[in-house]
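Slide 14.
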Amino acid sequence: MWYFLIKIIMTQYFRYAQIVMGPAGSGKSMYCNIIQQHADTLGRTVRVMNLDPAAEYFKYRCDIDIRELVTLDDVMQELELGPNGGLVTAIEYLIENTDWLRDQLDGLGDDDYILIDCPGQIELYTHMTVMKDFVKTLKDIGFSVGGVYCIDCTFLSDPTKYISASLMALAAMNQLEVPHTNILTKCDLISNKESLEEMLDTDPSEIALGIAKSAYSAKFKSFTESIAKVLTEFNLVQFIPLDLSDEDSIRNVVYQIDQSIQYGENLESKINEDAMEQDY
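Slide 15: predicted structure.
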């Protein structure tokens, strides 16, 4: 009896999902493509789901596509909504059709690892509940879920953009309540790698001082410094660089996210479970 109870608990989270978020143009689809390719070289199966009902093109192999259930154009025409309202309604429709989503996910096989390529409207993750509801649906189906927030590395060159990006990532982290990893994309496009490392090592409070030097920003000096203080003292937002030209960089990103959703730990548990089953 105890063995079968343990088996039920252990098999509950042998499915893994990354919610790949970020502003439009931040490299979410590129991230999904490169991680899928990297997994192929390791003999790992990584699936990708497109969650953008308005998507037109992506390079990765798309295993599940929300557009097969609902498209943005259909929602906008039928309900006379704008792009943002139509997008939210389309994802809400997906959540309501849990059976369709479950059938699609179950059709992928056991021990799934899936990347979910999300739309670029950041309000979906920062203050609306629709993505939080989607995450809950995945958990109910049996997935261990982690958040991946993509930010274009050029944001680091502008102190104001850096602080804004950090706040957006923090808001998404707080809203979704899942293990969270922030990825700096497009690092392979930077010629001066040393400057990137310097920015990653720079304390947010020092960046805030750079913002306050301008005449306009001086009025908000205390406010900016308070934000930087929160980021520094609580150490809530850290960025991991992703350089497509560096295999070590790709491996490090995969490792960090696997750790956050306990991918390796659950595999070890599965091996022990198989041994128990043979002994039984």
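Speaker note: The first strand starts at residue 15 and ends at 21.
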